[in-house]
Amino acid sequence: MSGGPLRIGLSARLLHKPPPELGFPGKSLQYLEQSMAHWIMAHGALAFMVPTIGEHLGLRRAQISVHDYVAALDGLVLQGGADVSPTTYHETPLRPEWAGDRVRDLYEIELLWEFVIQGKPVLGVCRGAQLINVACGGTLWQDITEYVPGAGTHRNDDLYDSHYHDIELQPGSRLAELYGKVPGGRVNSIHHQAVRKLGSDLCIEALSVGDGVIEAIRWNGSSYMFGCQWHPEFHGDGELLEGEVILRDFLEAAAVARDKKV
């Protein structure tokens, strides 16, 4: 890789109403989960959280733009976190607790497409994969257990990232190519929502064994955009499908895109 370390942007997680014990009454927080940043940094890339940009937040767009941020970075990782709001894919939340975070949705969708416009890769993890699907016009199951017939358990709050299930890679897919002769593997599972209607120009690259829930998707458009439901940054256990394969492929795409700009 030429030109120094790759500069990878991470979309921010938003905390609109911090609990009192954090000491920020009436304020909003933007943050990242450290495992994701450390995962990227362990491969020699620099990790930068990209804050929201919007006039309603007291920041005039004339001062800074999404374009400016993307121009300074080489790739984007969409973090996990709160549900995608059903209103973002033109549905009504079926329960109040599934209302999601529309503010974050709109911020990340704008960010995602700016990276695509500038020809830079996007990697979506968990919620990030769902966001990619919605950004491409797809929809989600608002709750797997409630609405997907015969579904297995995809989330266990007590076990969190120690809850696992098996996936199968789709023959002929880029993901299957990356993993070579491995037909599938075991992954962590921390999500209660999943892809329902597949978005435009997306293809399925992995399915959950047993219930067929979509676990990985890839865009067939002009630049690199891939999303997986599991958290590869948590895959340090040899029992699980190696997460580094996904990150290396993403970083290689970022390096290629950067070299084209030189």
TrEMBL record:
Its EC number is 4.1.3.27. InterPro entries: Class_I_gatase-like, Peptidase_C26, PuuD-like. GO terms for cellular component: cytosol. Pfam families: Peptidase_C26. It is an enzyme of class 4 (lyase). Gene3D superfamilies: 3.40.50.880. GO terms for molecular function: anthranilate synthase activity; gamma-glutamyl-gamma-aminobutyrate hydrolase activity. Keywords: Glutamine amidotransferase, Lyase. GO terms for biological process: polyamine catabolic process. This is Glutamine amidotransferase. It comes from Azoarcus sp. (strain BH72). The lineage of its organism: Bacteria, Pseudomonadati, Pseudomonadota, Betaproteobacteria, Rhodocyclales.
